[in-house]
Amino acid sequence: MIFRQLFDQESSTYTYLIADPATKTAILVDPVLNQVERDLKLLEELGLNLRYCLETHIHADHITGTAKLREVKGCLGVVPDHAQANCADRHIKDGETLQLDGIAIEAIATPGHTDSHMAYRVNNDRILTGDALLIRGCGRTDFQSGDAGTLFDSVTQRLFTLPDNTLVYPAHDYRGHTVSTIGEEKRWNSRFAERDRDQFIEFMANLGLPMPTKIMEAVPANERCGRIASPDTTNIISIDFSSTK
Ligand code: FE
Fold this sequence. Notes:
By secondary structure, the protein is α/β, with parallel strands linked by helices. The protein has one domain (2-213): Metallo-beta-lactamase, Chain A, CATH 3.60.15. It is 24% helix and 26% strand. It has a six-stranded mixed beta sheet with strand order 1-2-3-4-5-6, with helices on one face. A six-stranded mixed beta sheet has the order 7-8-9-10-11-12. Strand 8 (103-109) and strand 9 (118-122) form a beta hairpin. The structure holds fe (iii) ion. Fe (iii) ion is lined by residues 57, 59-60, 113, 131, 139.
């Protein structure tokens, strides 16, 4: 398996490029609009054909690169079941597997950061945890239908029940971490290791974080799979793909 972790400095977002080396088919998970040129260059250099763009959730801090990548590469945009994105080609449900030739990507519903968030287990040895579980942290729960109790349940019941040696690849990191394991997070992620459900809810209610600077533009754009509305709001810049859902 080809597996690359790519970083966007502005939003501290990790994008993952996964590909089957035998067939050269590829998927990008959580692509960032500002990094589309980087991703296209890497696909080209590795000789890969982009089949899917997959989102862990509707992001509030950056605009997805999916619309641009669909326009250029003709790939399919896949979003979690129930995500507010009618533009998607396909929705993926809890327990469903997206098969990328020799690579199996299994969706695991992990709501709490948003109400339709999915984590993706790749070939049973690693998991892309999105914003549900970060390394020694977790995504915030104070907007986009977030719910701290739901996130606690998702992490402790859906993620911490995976084998301890499962590699953890988050959607963001702000402190220089790149990868962890489920066993390491169970022991050292203080948000979960040192708190019960009620204590976690109280902790998350008092984080006092500012709103993401891009939330007002990012969420509506991401609900259109990354297409940007022009100032008159009626015109959408970029190609309008009809939904095949
Ligand atoms: Fe997020």
